[in-house]
Amino acid sequence: MNEKEQSLDFLYKTLPEILIPWYLKHARDLPWRKDRVPYHVWLSEIMLQQTRVEAVKGYYTRFLKEFPTIADLAEADEDRLLKLWEGLGYYNRARNLQKAAKKIISENNGVFPSEYSEILTLPGIGEYTAGAIASNCFDEPVAAVDGNVLRVISRITESYEDIQKPAVKKQVKARLEAVYPRTRCGDFTQSLMELGAIVCVPSGAPKCGVCPMEDLCVAHRHGTEQKLPVKNTKKERKQEERTVFILRCGTKIAVKKRKKEGLLAGLWELPNISEKKTAKEAMEILSEWGVSPVSLKREAIRKHVFSHIQWNMTGFYVECGQEAPEMEWVCKNELGASIALPTAFRQFLDEDFFQNV
Ligand code: SF4
Predict the structure, then answer these.
(1) For the chain, which terminus, N or C, has the lower number of CB atoms within 10 Å?
(2) What is the CATH number of domain 238-355?
(3) Boundaries of each HhH-GPD domain copy (predicted)?
(4) 88-126 tens-digit pLDDT
């Protein structure tokens, strides 16, 4: 083993002994850390993908109140499921949760699988989530490596390898798994995530002064922590122009159900078309749709960022004389209680709009 390898080996070996005690002392009190029930850990990990901890707390509690068991989730009405997910985005996460719940009920008598390799076969569960569940709930020495963990490791070891390369992730996972403790596997997994979330943070300066790895971290010693991690393969997001119609007829608002495939599949939407239209063109389109536009109240520009695409939207608020039959016309209460309208559209329904509904 050369000197560099020896140094890496030493750094990885110190991680569990330093991070587990630190985690036990400093871990945030989060609703999904109150127990290690696989369903709870699974749900929280899925909700936390691409979503901030603070935003997830309320959703997590409401979801479990309505679907307290895997069987309840498997039997849930899809519209109700999506309504509970409204605002969290990436709705396929909710659909996959239900698919996996159905699989657990039909193929495993309702018992959550207890091994990493079996967990990995469930819909919507990748290596990261399977590792988090297996180590947290079943004390299996499997690492859960995501962008947070890769950032922490690349700083501690001062690695300039591109963390978006699958080979780098694979190597970090293997090295971590070689040093997993015999017990407290879940605490080790959580400690790495927690360090990335509250100390070795992704934006702004890392909080090295309160970091348990401060004395050993190579990037900190060399003052290079803010240059790391290296991410070279960032893809440009596609930009798409859209025109959105916020249509009101009396006290009703027009909504439509989206197609069952593709982006925001099966959810509700405000009527919209691709391309940016002028106010005049927009009114002509509405006439063709048979809503008899009476007056254009105002115009608003909004954007919504998905993982791979950004919608740049021009919204037209229009009073209509007729309810076009191919749209659903719903009142404010229905919109609140049973229609799952994604944030991309819901952001148009502001205070001003609701005042007259
Ligand atoms: S010392 Fe600083 S850069 Fe190194 S792991 Fe800790 S917070 Fe991150």
Answers:
(1) N
(2) 3.90.79.10
(3) 47-198
(4) 988 999 999 999 999 999 999 999 999 999 999 999 999
